[in-house]
Write a structure and sequence with these properties.
Elements: E1 5-10, E2 41-42, E3 51-57, H1 60-67, E4 75-82, H2 87-95, E5 98-99, E6 102-103, E7 108-111, E8 133-140, H3 147-154, E9 159-167, E10 170-171, E11 180-182, H4 185-193
Parallel strand pairs: 3-9
Antiparallel strand pairs: 1-3, 1-11, 2-3, 4-8, 4-9, 5-6, 7-8, 9-10
Amino acid sequence: MIYRYIAFNKPYNVLSQFTSNRDSKNQHHTLKEYISVDSVYPVGRLDQDSEGLLLLTNHGQIQHRLTDPKFAHPRTYWVQVERIPDTSALRQLQEGVTIKNYKTRPAKVKLLCHEPLLPSRYPPIRFRKTVPTAWLEITLTEGRNRQVRRMTAAVGFPTLRLVRIAIAHICLEDLKPGQWRDLNSTEITSLKHAY
């Protein structure tokens, strides 16, 4: 079998799956509109309202390794939040936040000095003149449902925009929203030997 390993920059409002719920009144955009490679599947997921790096493969062992929590591979996000987080909020995010009777693992969190260079999102985030925003870089080693959004909300700074920029050693780099590329041999080797 020939294995494929794909990095995709998932746009906002696209489901991390190839089919949409046919019973739904609102048909959603899916991966099928962007990726024409047969028999590859998303490794994990990004919510419909999140953007950025999504890996796809037909290699079951790699898929298992990257989704099984015991391997604790890092995932890095740029997160735009409402208001400017203080030192206390950043420390809480770093040490772990309790969400629905569960405490998240410690995370790497830093306040970015400048807004990252990202393509504009459509539709744009809501903007309020009286409420400033800030960008955080957050690296997690777990991937619970809507975890980043729940973490920032728990410390009082709701997420406005969420972009995953890296999974393990694989980075989004220059992929534009909706574009994909095959991983290079170095990236594939790093996935096979990581964790």
